[in-house]
Please model this.
Amino acid sequence: MGWIDGVLKMKSVDWHRSNSLILVGPSEWARHFGRHMYFNTMLNLDDWDEEADYIVLDDFNPDINKFLPAWKCFFGGQKEFTLTDKYRGKKTVHWGKPMIWLSNEDLFKHLNLEQSEFIKKNCTVICLTNKLY
Model:
């Protein structure tokens, strides 16, 4: 797949800004490309690993403003940003690496025009009709 060769296999020092991948449809494929963080439905800062090569966000609520307030930082590959977790203080993370967003429904149905344009500019979007394996 072109995104894997073009983004994940690059060294992080070569990234100007990371490009994220959005997969809509059935897939368990995203967790097979090296050291990564995996979060299902919500973040857990206890599991944050700055040494990971990429992050997988699986089945998050598509209301990204409410359930992923730092969504632009993830989708846009920000190098440094602040996160918070329920009952925890804020934490500055150093990242700037690729994200894979997995969802069974089309994220764009839940976005406004500004969000849609941002994601189209910063992400590769693939809609799957069949499993990749």
Summary: The mean pLDDT is 84.
